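Trying the structure run again after the queue cleared.
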Amino acid sequence: MSKSAVPYLYGAEETIPIEQLHPFANHPFHVRHDLEMKELMDSIEESGIIHPILVRPKEGGEYEVISGHRRWEACKELGIKQVPAKVLYLDDDEATVLMVNSNIQREHVLPSEKAFAYKMRMDALSHQGKTTSCQVGEKLLSVQNISQETNESQRQVHRYIRLTNLIPPILQMVDENRIAFNPAVEISYMTEEHQQWLQEEMELCDATPSLVQSRALKEMSRNGTLTEDYLHTLLTEEKPNQRQKFFLNQSDVQQYFPPGYTPQQMHNTIMMLLRGWKHKRTSRQRPQREDELER
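Done. Tokens:
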């Protein structure tokens, strides 16, 4: 059995000063200071770190965190000086695969996090599998591997990886649920310059393209016929069956949430509270109707 197949078996547990730890290079998962982080800090303060973080050694006696960035950040916030860690001797590709596998099962993963995690894992698996000269074939096998481990179709894995071609402002709009996933995938095929035009027009018009419009934009970007004037016309035209928008200003509701809550987390929490309110309202109304029938 190879060392890379079961890296946990070869790790020695140590107690490492927190200042000797460094984040994983290009780590795609964000550490958010939200309610979950508060609960994690409370747990560590009460019981300590139950599961050691995973690290690998760097030059000069330093260590790179592979798994456990949230626990590490919580310890820094709590003023803890040392943390238990399992030291693994892995190359870059092995460490990348383990880092993604350890984080992708989080309860809340943003589209951008999943996109870059899948891409990093695909590239790492492709490097590990370079026993043939067919690089495209290796990438296909890597996507199959990711699909099997995440229970997502190969097509969906490809579509997430496509999001890494979006410019940062548009990718942030995907994370904030301001633009739908499917149109964003089509937009990812546009050139960087055309994406910048689109992003400026979306902000100006307070509108986003539909899936059909996004596909048209992709083709126009590919054949060089897209213009800024056309973008403006497209985004200001009324879409079929378009409903009047209802929205809450983020600045109005931000005060009611913990610092670091993303717009998507605020949206999810508001929807959960509304569902609970509807259920309570329905429960109160039902006995009244029954009473009226008995009279």
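Residues 123 and 139 are 7 Å apart (CA to CA). Worth checking whether this holds up in the mutant runs.
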